[in-house]
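JOB MANIFEST
job_type = single_chain_structure
chain_count = 1
residues = 645
[input]
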Amino acid sequence: MSKQYKELANCIRFLSIDAVQKANSGHPGMPMGMADVATVLFKDFLNFDPKNPNWINRDRFVLSAGHGSMLLYSLLYLTGYQSVSLKDIKNFRQLNSICAGHPEYHKNTGIETTTGPLGQGISNAVGFAISEEILKKQVGEKIINHKTYVLAGDGCLMEGISHEALSLAGHLKLKNLILLFDNNSISIDGPTSLAVSDDHEKRFKSYGWDFIKINGHNFGEISKALKKAQKSKKPVAISCKTTIGYGSPNKSGQASSHGSPLGEEEIKLVRKKLKWNYQPFEIPKNLMNEWNSIGQKASQKAKKINKEFSNKHKQTEKTINDSIEKAKIEYLKTLEPMATRKCSEKFLEIASKLPYLIGGSADLAGSNNTKTKNHKIIKPNNFSGNYIHYGVREHAMCGIMNGISLHSNLIPYGGTFLIFSDYCKPSIRLAAMMKKRVIYVFTHDSIGLGEDGPTHQPIEQLTSLRSIPNLNVFRPADLIETFECWQKALQSENAPSVIALTRQGIKPIRLKNISENMSALGAYEILRTGNDIKITLISSGSETSLACDVSHKLATESIYSKVVSMPCQELFDQQSKDYKNKTLTETELVVSIEASETGYWKKYTGTNGLNFGINDFGKSAPYKEIYNHFELSVEGIIKRIKEKL
């Protein structure tokens, strides 16, 4: 057995060694060290289908230690995935090669997620495991019953996101989650003892995980541990004691094999030591056939499961949309001032009936208004609900939501304060990169939150989020716009969305034309006080109401203007040139009003425009006093506009 497995593992080792050497860039050490574990996993345990990579009940394999990407590419090529050819492997780290420096998600390729920032893959894997449990409850164990395996290294476990994600996984008793820890005790700077002295066993057990220690080069121990993990009632961590750069006479066990090619002379020595008498990128026919047979064997298990897992949710969507329209009409009968976080809650009371919408919050459900009376809580051993209490774990929450979105047809949303989006940004960036439908509900979106003060008042956060490519940042102005922004976020299949919401109540301003989603245009004219206008006022969120007040007050002095509500800059930027010109170039003076950093608005107002906002940190006081302090008031704005005119 050992000889056969060793030869199969060496296929992974030498493809990785040769690809890194040819690219003169990469990380050969991890694939060399974990090749034995990966071989046993793929040969004897992993259920997958190279001919049907989107098989819903496949086991998920997540490479959290993304720098070891050649391990994954080698496995995909050897087992017969069409997504990775030998030519691709020879073009490792070259322009437009699927074999990128770190795994990059592409649907139906076997690359389940984009990894590289360490620890992200662990949180994604927790999201995969949660999704499996949810769908198992929804459609039955005959259709959904699989495992998620995540390969993580020392660096993944050093990153704080790993603590957050592993802790929640243990709490939820995700018995379908198996973590393979590449315990090689080496990082870029040298031995991990330079910075870490954690007791990993105690750490995992304190989270509520099972923990198994093995020699990562002993095939019998690897197999025995994986068999044991299949029957666990908890998530399982298998600590695989490995040698980084395994087989290298001079670089094994050394940091020098971590992030640099081995070099031609050292590769010759590795070939000699491991008795690999083949040319670079050459896999002997008998071993190639054996690897292909592993992929074919797994294919037989897929059968017709995907056909059984059809989207059963379309029938509920029309009912939901009808209810949304009725709620808008009912609200306009009252016209009561309402915080947009409360408006969002009213939307979610209706939308929570969608079986594929999975909500949550980072211990702020009552403040984010993300949990409604119609939600059921997901608990340990009970995944029949649709709402996750993530605890104070913003970073992991967003990484887990990425995993939920990647898994299947589920749409995750999660809430926290806008200021804490800083904790979330790495995961948000990856969601945007992967074009996944993930929705972030960020409340307390400005100085309008008041007394909590500058530590909680976002200033630069909206600009920071708007700078991320392929992310839609919504900031609705009232209930109608909030509903519209939510609807657009749910429809955005290829982009994540931020919905930034107020704590303070704001009066409704959209009183007509509510049947058409104007927010989907990104910006639109919401008020005009005369035909001969001199000023265009652009605003978002709570400041749109302020802009309307300014416009009306100016009209009393025969200075006429129009107000453009801009709930989403990104969608507006996608509109036609004619629409953008019609919206913004009607007047010489264009004024922006938003209680945040002003620089990002200058692309709309130009050098001759005015930008009202905040370019300093906030203050602790009642919110109306803070607005007045920063001259975000009708009087303060009109004074400067008149000076400009």
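[summary]
DSSP finds 25 helices and 18 strands in the chain.
Residues 520-644 form a domain with the Rossmann fold fold (CATH 3.40.50.920).
exit_status = 0
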